[in-house]
């Protein structure tokens, strides 16, 4: 017998499907540009850099799609069951479709009418703007030299602060600059290497945007401590292949915060992996669990991360678990489903 699903679950499934379809579209676009680059007759001196950039973009999109596919399994299985039962009210579906089509036609007519008014208003605004520009262009203001303080190096400052104030003292955890922080017109960029002893190494290419006070991860790579490989290559170890997939979701949630908090959340997340191979799962209390035919048996490779959660109707915040909680992937998905995350 088919299990029923709440409207909120169905809405979340639809949203996840829309997001996955958007990712598929982005993959097609990335592949198009990558193919165009490879087939180009003119390969300039920066071809290797562009090739690496495009290949990483394709890899990043495929990682996102794989992660989203994990979350869609339950929804697609439910859809298959519903389709097989074929208990749809086709008359109601047809009626609703005709109603939506009629409403769309009305909206189109209204937009067409408003477009003519907008063009008339736009012409008037343009004429007035051109007149004002001519008047202002004749005014010359006296310019005085200003004392401009040298820009604050965002990554250098806040990584040092995190290491001195937030890093657990009993954990061997290092952060080094593979490429020193470089000031840009909009903020700064750098490449850092994070190492959690006996656990993992992560290389990240980061950018700080001053005006929006936001952080961007352009490239990332997570691998074993003694593993030697290029940025675009997959790790030879299944556990790190899985962690790379998980990082796509984690960064998406952590980067919605302001830049300093985003950076701190990322460093908190990476330091929580210091016991990757020794900590038991919070839910099943085991070290190894069968993940899938592809990944076989894995340790608990999920560490929960900071995320912004919605507020429920009575204005009390949704219960959240502390960042760094240890899970197997299957246990984590079950936890999310039980808490409608």
From TrEMBL:
Pfam short name (any one): Med27
Keywords, ordered alphabetically: Coiled coil, Nucleus, Transcription, Transcription regulation
Membrane spanning residue stretches: none
One Gene Ontology cellular component annotation held by this UniProt entry: mediator complex
Keyword Coiled coil among record annotations: yes
GO biological processes: regulation of transcription by RNA polymerase II
Domain of life: Eukaryota
Coiled coil: 92-121
GO molecular function, one term: transcription coactivator activity
Subcellular location: Nucleus
Entry similarity comment: Belongs to the Mediator complex subunit 27 family.
Protein name: Uncharacterized protein
Organism: Thamnidium elegans
């Amino acid at each position: 017998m088919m299990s029923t699903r709440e409207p909120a679950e169905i809405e979340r499934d639809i949203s996840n499907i829309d997001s996955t379809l958007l990712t598929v579209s982005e993959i097609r676009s990335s592949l198009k540009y990558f193919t165009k680059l490879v087939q180009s007759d003119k390969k300039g001196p920066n071809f290797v850099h562009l090739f690496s950039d495009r290949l990483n973009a394709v890899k990043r999109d495929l990682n996102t799609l794989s992660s989203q596919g994990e979350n869609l399994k339950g929804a697609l299985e439910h859809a298959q069951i519903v389709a097989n039962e074929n208990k749809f009210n086709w008359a109601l579906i047809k009626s609703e479709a005709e109603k939506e089509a009629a409403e769309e036609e009305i909206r189109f007519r209204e937009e067409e009418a408003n477009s003519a008014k907008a063009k008339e208003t736009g012409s008037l605004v343009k004429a007035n703007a051109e007149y004002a520009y001519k008047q202002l262009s004749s005014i010359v203001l006296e310019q005085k030299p200003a004392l401009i303080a040298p820009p604050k190096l965002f990554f250098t400052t806040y990584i040092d602060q995190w290491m001195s104030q937030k890093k657990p003292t009993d954990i061997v955890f290092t952060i080094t600059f593979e490429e020193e922080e470089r000031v840009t017109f909009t903020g700064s960029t750098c490449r850092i290497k994070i190492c959690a002893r006996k656990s993992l190494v992560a290389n990240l290419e980061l950018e700080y945007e001053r005006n929006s006070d936001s952080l961007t991860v352009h490239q990332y790579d997570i691998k074993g401590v003694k593993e030697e490989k290029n940025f675009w290559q997959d790790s030879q170890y299944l556990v790190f292949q899985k962690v790379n997939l998980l990082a796509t979701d984690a960064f998406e949630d952590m980067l919605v915060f302001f830049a300093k908090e985003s950076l701190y959340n990322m460093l908190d997340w990476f330091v929580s992996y210091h016991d990757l191979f020794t900590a038991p799962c919070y839910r099943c209390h085991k070290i190894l669990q069968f993940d899938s035919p592809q990944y076989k048996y894995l340790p608990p490779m999920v560490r929960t991360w900071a995320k912004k959660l919605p507020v429920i109707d009575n204005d009390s915040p949704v219960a959240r678990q502390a960042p760094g909680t240890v899970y197997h992937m299957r246990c984590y998905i079950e936890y999310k489903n039980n808490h409608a995350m």
